[in-house]
Amino acid sequence: MSEQNDKALVAGGSAPGKSMIPFSPQNLNEALTISGQLAQSDLCPKSFDNRKENVLAAIMMGHELGFGVMQSLSNIAVVNGRASIWGEGVTALIQRAIREEGEGYFTDKVTGEGDKLAVTVTSKRKGQPEYSFTYTWDDAKKAGLTTKDTYQKYPKDMLYWKAAGRVAKRQWADVLKGIAIRENMDEMEPVEVDQVRVYPTDSPAPEKPKDEPKAEAPKAEKKGPGRPPKAEKAPEPQPEPEKPAQSQPEAPAAPVEEELAGPEAQEAEAKPVLRAIGTYEKAVKLLTTPPAYAARVLTMDGLLMFVFDSYEAAVATKPLTGKTVEVMHEAITPPIAGVAGKVVKFGATSK
Fold it and tell me: CA 318, CA 341: separation in Å to the nearest integer?
């Protein structure tokens, strides 16, 4: 009888006494169909924007962690294009792993109040030594987190998730599979980050021909009625011989680079590091492909932008907002219009 019930369930039917229909799509189309139905449900988080693709991605991520369909919708969140998991889901995964291993614990302890508040999370896993990590209010203050609304309203919870996240990454990385804790990603949301559209300048060739005909066309139309402009077009062939002259030195440049090898080639390719000082305004998101994050700094030369290596590096500079900073930077390859350089070192000045 149980075999018949199992077959009915697999076929999508219902077994006697069973009301749950398993999620067992056989191909991508079936998975998208089910995800589309769930996306229209009131139980689907608003952050998924009622898109079946987002629902499917959350279900797939949850499946890798061992969650069911509805558990995935409840516990998986996306912040800045990166999957994360709510804290309760993290503790659920760790507690399940402890039960499966038959040994271990994951506990916490709160001490102090106010500025002395601290939360310590201690973990022990089978076959591994005990590991503890303490996160204090002073740590959060140094990171520029204590002014946030969540830290003001729920200080103990926020300190707990910071400590728990560190311990989970250290001892339970295989259980979490590299996924971040959602509560710890609030500080990484670029709420005050402006979106700036810039364009890479590494392909001037296709851009110039588009601009040149547009510039020549109106001139021909305006000067067309008066025949004298034809005399002005005569000197145009003069710059043409100059272009091959410029291309000639570029041709030998290639073999020169090819001949260089070892330390000589590295020295030739070394980028000079420049220095800029100014007032740090904010971090901005550049709408490039892929997106990049840059610092807007008001210098003596005007408002300049400097690209960071990563989004996390840009977020880490928030405490310096409004302060005088020193930016060590180098040229970007390929260059981006409106960006002065790539950050090598970014920090507050001594003054």
Answer: 19
> Residue 334, preceding bond cis, omega within 30 degrees?
yes
User: Residue 347 forms beta bridges with which residues?
Assistant: 326
Asked if residue 62 lies in contact with residue 69, where contact means CB atoms within 8 angstroms, the answer is: yes
Task: Give CA–CA dist 118/136, Å, rounded.
Answer: 4
Residue 10 predicted with pLDDT over 90: no
Asked if 201 and 332 touch (Cβ cutoff 8 Å), the reply is: no
SS (H, E, C) 188-221: HCCCCCEEECCCECCCHHHHHHHHHHHHHHHHHH
φ, ψ (nearest 5 deg) of residue 151: -75, -30
pLDDT digits (tens, 9 = 90+) for 277-310: 988 888 888 877 777 888 889 888 778 899 998 8
Boundary-marking domain end, from 79, 104, 123: 79
The domain of 341 spans 274-348
Q: Lowest-pLDDT range, 174-178, 224-228, 333-337? A: 224-228
Say yes or no: 63 and 128 in one domain.
Answer: no
| Burial class (CB within 10 angstroms; exposed 0-12, middle 13-18, buried 19+) of 146 | middle
Of 151, 73, 149, nearest in space to 119 by CA: 151
Q: Which residues pair with 258 in a beta bridge?
A: none
How do beta strands 302-307 and 194-196 pair? unpaired
pTM of the model: 0.48
230 within some domain: no
Is residue 182 a contact partner of residue 87, using CB atoms and an 8 Å limit? yes
Question: Does 223 fall in a domain?
Answer: no
Candidates 70, 166, 181; CA nearest to 122 is 166
Count of H helices and E strands in the chain?
14, 12
143 found inside a domain = yes
Distance CA(191)–CA(174), nearest Å, equals 32
Is the domain of 74 the same as that of 100?
Answer: no
Which pair of structure tokens corresponds to residue 63?
């499946």
